[in-house]
Amino acid sequence: MTNTPSSVSHAVSEIPPRMAWVDLIPKVFKDLVRLDTSARAGLDHTLLELVKIRASQINHCAFCLDMHTKDALASGESIERIVQLSAWGESRHFYTEKELAALELTEAVTVLTDGFVPDGVYNQAAAVFEEDELAHLIASIVVINAWNRFGVATRKTPDVAALG
C-alpha cells in the first residue's frame, strides 16, 4: 500500500474526538479567538505561522498542526521551511535571526523544562524584537499553547474527508 493521504485515511482508524468543546463552551472559544487576535497584532504573519506550527509539533496537536501548516502554505511559505521546523536547530540556515529567536522562545515557553524561560533565550529574543513586539510574541505563544491543549485534551483531529 502506498503512503498517500487517501490510502492512509482508509487504512488507519483514529480514536474519535472526546467532546465538541466549542459547542459546549462557546463563550470560552470566542474569548480565545479574541485573545488570539489581540496577541498577534503587529507580528509578522510568516513568523507567527512558524511559531504556531512549532508549538503544535511539540504539543502533538494534529488539528492545529494541520491548520497552521495549510495556512502557512496558502500564504506562500515554502515546504522546505515547514518540513525543517522540527529540526530548526540543525537547519538554522533556513530561518532569519528573528525567526530563530522566536522559535527558541516558543520551545522555552511551550516546554518549560526548568520551570521558567532561561535568561539567554529571553535575552536573545529581546535583542531582535522591540519590547511591544516581544510582548505580543509571548502572548501568541501562550495562546497557541492554549489552543493546543484544548486540541489534545479533546482529541481534535484534522478533517480526513478533506484529504480526498
Would you write up a description of this structure?
By secondary structure, the chain is mostly helical. The chain has a single domain, classed as AhpD-like. The chain is built from nine helices and no strands. Helix 3 runs antiparallel to helix 9 (131-153), helix 4 (45-59) runs parallel beside helix 9 and helix 7 packs antiparallel against helix 8. The protein starts with a helix and ends in an 11-residue tail after the last helix.
Structure described in brief:
The protein has 164 residues and is mainly α.
Largest sheet: none
CATH architecture: Up-down Bundle
Q: CATH superfamily name?
A: AhpD-like
The number of distinct β-strands equals: 0
Number of domains: 1
Query: How is the CATH topology named?
Result: AhpD-like
Provide the CATH top-level class: Mainly Alpha
Strand content: under 5%
Helical stretch count?
Answer: 9
Please estimate the helix content: 55-70%
- N→C terminal distance: 17 Å
**Outline, from the CA principal axes?**
globular
Radius of gyration from CA coordinates? 17 Å
Provide the succession of SSEs: HHHHHHHHH
Extract low-pLDDT stretches: none
Coarse structural class? mainly alpha
Comma- or semicolon-separated keywords:
164 residues, mainly alpha, AhpD-like, 65% helix, globular
Q: What is the topology?
A:
Layout (H helix, E strand, L loop, with lengths): L4 H7 L9 H4 L1 H14 L5 H15 L2 H13 L4 H6 L12 H15 L7 H10 L2 H23 L11
